[in-house]
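Researcher: Can you fold this with pyridoxal-5'-phosphate in place?
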Amino acid sequence: MSSASKTMHVPYIDLGIQYRNLKSEIDPLIEKILASGSYILGEHGAALEKEYAAYQGVAHAVGVASGTDAIELALRAAGIGAGDEVIVPSFTFVATAEAVMHVGARPVFVDIEPDTYGIDPAQTETAVTSKTKAIIPVHLYGHPCTMEPILSLAKSKGLQVIEDCAQGTGASIGNKKVGSLGRLGAFSFFPTKNLGACGDAGIIVTDRADDAEKLRWLRNHGSPKKYQHEILGRNSRLDEIQAAILRVKLKHLDRWNQERIRVAGWYDKAFKALPPAVLKKLTLPSTRSGLSHVYHIYALLTAQRDALWEHLKTKTIDAAVHYPEPLHRQPVMRSIVSAGLSLPVSERVAREVLSLPIYPEMTEAMVLYVVEAIHDYYRAGN
Ligand SMILES: *Cc1c(COP(=O)(O)O)cnc(C)c1O
């Protein structure tokens, strides 16, 4: 490779390819649904729930309007509400903590582990108080959290575990899929997630029949049947068009995840071939043994993050930052976070993390172009 390699646009993700490959399956389904007049809580929604529960190896799945709603309704189903504390990692998408606040509970932020980017089990244990009711591990970037100590802590203290699986669709620990380890697992089908709808959608999985029933009521105005409202619910339903598209895509999820893993392998290999002086400046993603990382995000750490990001823009490479500020530093959380709270791993990762382009259809040539652009940046003496 030479620094004179031709310019290539590398998008962060390309959802158009996926759609074009499935167009002949998806378009007739959409037309059929439009003609049927059954747009909400119909056959596709029910079938998706069955198929997703089977895929996850759990008894029940309940479709909802988004991943954010999935977390919030899971908390409600588990009986979490006003006066309760819920332990969450500070380094996650805001929805994890937002959902806790929307049920009237208080998120208690703890740090993440530096290698998995998941919630730190030791700090989680320290954060437990008499008000703690639940823990929300987030399988960030597609790497499963260190669940065993979290699950045993929860068991010994009588806490509920609700997994935020928005980025971990298809990831597993041993032979168990993430989402099936806690009481409830919340998934997002936001278009850019590993399994994405063509709009907003989400799903909750659980082995508990009582939770599943409550979730079905909660998402539909607290109704066990039409115009009978048992509990305070909401409108958070997954529509038929999204459900039908997700059923088509679910069949390809494992292959797409394998392709993401292959792309990550190309990155790893190309980075490891760089001169040691360059490689030293980068922290590559790692996977703990026994876990499957599904690379929703390929996250690199470097002290020169912002300058490198700018450099990649000049090479028409679309990188991204997930996330530039940990939640305990966000203005919206100011009233619930003590002023001096310091979570050093979250703060450092927020400063140093850069998400490189990754999607199933990405080519090796694109990966090599990205790595060469990064090499260029450091070769220039940075
Ligand atoms: C995407 C995401 C959510 C929210 O999902 P939506 O479907 O966008 O509401 C929650 N948590 C994490 C970690 C996410 O990445």
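Model: Folded with pyridoxal-5'-phosphate in place. Residues 66-68, 92-93, 95-96, 138, 164, 166-167, 188, 190, 200, 202 surround pyridoxal-5'-phosphate (CB under 6 Å).
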